[in-house]
Amino acid sequence: MWTEDRIKDYIKKKLDKKRYDHVINVKDMAIKLAEKYNVDKKKAEIAALCHDCAKNMSEKELLNIIKDHNLNLDWISLKNIQITHGLIGSIIMKEEMEIKDRDILNSVKYHTTGRANMSMLEKIIYLSDVIEISRDFKEVHDIRKLAFENIDEALIKSLECTIKYVLDKGELLHTNTVIARNCLINDKM
């Protein structure tokens, strides 16, 4: 597995300054949440650093990797190829960075949509991406505070904000996002 410095060098070359700064902010938030919820901080750090490693790839580059790996995408992902940057990032991590930890890989793979029965690390990376310090949307302060009180409640609120945002824009909503929210609601019942 690559060292943290080698990963940072890689993403610094692949991402623009704004995106790189975002990744560092996500890493900082992920470490704080990992401490709060007794999750391996190193795993949180690696997943956070890598979560957007494919973000600045063109649609053509993403599609080439999808084709080369014979990936069967759902129709929603096919209509919005950029949503696959988490999936492609997990492939880059496994094949280039030699990261084999399934929880780290899944945390990157599902950080844009969420999914059913997310692990604690997956929850941390998903939320850290949403609430890192430079994020500024109406509900972020409440979600950020809630993340350190009850991570599942913060996730529900975050997923509901995402759902509303996507619906308001008239865009396609990934079914994993709805399923992630419903699973968390169901767990409360």
From TrEMBL:
Domain HD: from-to ranges: 19-134
Report the EC number(s), separated by commas if there are several: 3.6.1.41
Q: What PROSITE patterns would the database entry show?
A: HD
InterPro entries reported in the protein's UniProt record: Diverse_Catalytic_Enzymes (IPR051094), HD/PDEase_dom (IPR003607), HD_domain (IPR006674), HDIG_dom (IPR006675), YqeK (IPR005249)
Keyword RNA-binding among UniProt keywords: no
Q: Which Pfam families match?
A: HD (PF01966)
Q: Which UniProt keywords apply?
A: Hydrolase, Iron, Metal-binding, Nucleotide-binding
Write out the catalysed reaction: P(1),P(4)-bis(5'-adenosyl) tetraphosphate + H2O = 2 ADP + 2 H(+)
Q: Does the keyword Ribosomal protein apply?
A: no
PANTHER family, per database record: BIS(5'-NUCLEOSYL)-TETRAPHOSPHATASE, SYMMETRICAL, SLR1885 PROTEIN
What is the name of the protein in this document? bis(5'-nucleosyl)-tetraphosphatase (symmetrical)
Lineage start? Bacteria, Bacillati, Bacillota, Clostridia, Eubacteriales
